[in-house]
Specification:
By secondary structure, the protein is an alpha/beta fold. It has one domain: TIM Barrel, CATH 3.20.20. Strands 1-2-3-4 form a four-stranded parallel beta sheet. The protein has a four-stranded parallel beta sheet with strand order 5-6-9-10. It is globular. Pfam families: A_deaminase. One of its GO terms (cellular component) is cytosol.
Length: about 375
């Protein structure tokens, strides 16, 4: 067994937290093929392994727009209550098999009404699937809790309507709100009134920002979106400057060689300082960030490597970071695999990986008592 495989085997049963995972990007390949066949939707392949490989290859383009094209296939089969319920149930079962004990799954109901479902019926179907999945996991002596994050699509003009939808279902599975879709050109300020409504009703929000656009998008998410977490958020690194002071003489040069870290100067810009000092959680998804070009936007290279992802820099500087999958099928990942990958890239021990779980659970939209109980459970298991 390889070192990576051995680490994944060690990590898989440990309790984990997933805060940034899209339902429509996380179907089982076999289920997608079956449901597509029922409605006559043409897929690139009818073989589950080959289809998963095609999706992963397409995702690995370095372009967010191309990455999102895959979702035309997944949303096509998620237009009925029966299919939504099945996809949600299997999603929960797959999370549990990956060791996830708490998750917040995001999806956009407005993308699932093409066959006549109302927005409310779509939310109810997904909730029924989640509850069915939780029961299935419990029947196998497992435990998992999953909340819905209702997303509004940035490019559409349905923000107010989707906020009211989320508020109607806050007592039946919905734990928060999100905006998704193309970031550049569709700022959170477009939804300012909707975010104000959320704040008045005290339903929390996370905002996709700092993935396909830069620091000003993050600022906008914080100011107009009242974001309590940032979806990805890695381009906050653009507001951080790191430089090394030049030694003034030979004695300084000798000392510098002995203790180079003392000569490194880190300056946080106002947005980065706000995010770091207020411990606003960054829902990073390392593999997805490489695939969509979010990391490359920071390195200036055509393709960034995981070692070049700003995750470790942000962690070392005290930012509140977490590890997520974004889209399990589309990106071809699991949370266990993502944790193993960052451990290998940045030489993390189990203690650091446990930190990311605690960061996530404390940034979750659960109540205080529930967060405390889950934190204790996670720490006990990881230690």
């Amino acid at each position: 067994m390889s070192t990576s495989s051995a680490l994944e085997a060690q990590l898989r049963p440990l309790p984990k937290v997933s805060l940034h995972d899209h339902l429509d990007g996380s179907l089982r390949a076999a289920t997608l093929i079956e449901l597509a066949g029922q409605i006559g939707h043409q897929l690139p392949s009818s073989d589950p392994e080959q289809l998963a490989e095609i999706f992963s290859t397409n995702a690995d383009s370095g372009d967010l727009v191309k990455y999102l094209e895959t979702f035309a296939h997944t949303t096509a089969v998620m237009q009925t209550a029966q299919n939504l319920q099945r996809v949600a149930c299997e999603y929960v079962e797959d999370l549990a098999a990956d060791g996830v004990v708490y998750a917040e799954v995001r999806w956009a109901p407005e993308q699932h009404t093409a066959e006549g479902l109302t927005l409310d019926q779509a939310v109810e179907a997904v909730q029924a699937g989640i509850e069915q999945g939780v029961e299935s996991v419990a029947g196998n002596d497992g435990i998992i809790a999953v909340g819905q994050l209702i997303s509004a699509m940035r490019q559409n003009d349905n923000g107010d309507q989707i906020v009211e939808l989320a508020l109607r279902h806050r007592e039946s599975g919905v734990v928060g709100f999100d905006i998704a879709g193309p970031e550049a050109g569709f700022p959170a300020s477009k939804f300012s009134a909707a975010f104000t409504r959320l704040a008045e009703q005290m339903l929390p929000a996370t905002v996709h920002a700092g993935e396909a656009d830069g620091v000003e998008s993050i600022r906008d998410a914080l100011v107009h979106g009242r974001a309590q977490r940032l979806g990805h958020g890695i381009r906050i690194a653009e507001d951080i400057s790191i430089s090394q002071e030049a030694p003034e003489d030979q004695d300084d040069q000798d000392r510098a060689e002995e203790d180079a870290e003392d000569l490194i100067e880190v300056v946080l810009g106002p947005v980065a300082r706000w995010v770091r000092d207020r411990q606003i959680h960054l829902e990073t998804s390392p593999t997805s960030n490489l695939q969509t070009g979010a990391a490359s936007a920071l390195t200036g290279e055509a393709r960034a490597q995981l070692q070049e992802h700003p995750f470790d820099m942000l962690y070392q500087l005290g930012f509140n970071v977490g590890v997520n999958t974004d889209n399990r099928l589309v990106s071809g990942v699991t949370l266990t695999g993502e944790l193993a990958a960052v451990a290998a890239a940045f030489d993390y021990e189990l203690a650091e990986l446990a930190d990311f779980q605690i960061n996530a659970i404390e940034a979750s939209f659960l109540g205080y008592e529930e967060r405390e109980a889950l934190s204790a459970h996670i720490l006990e298991a990881w230690q």
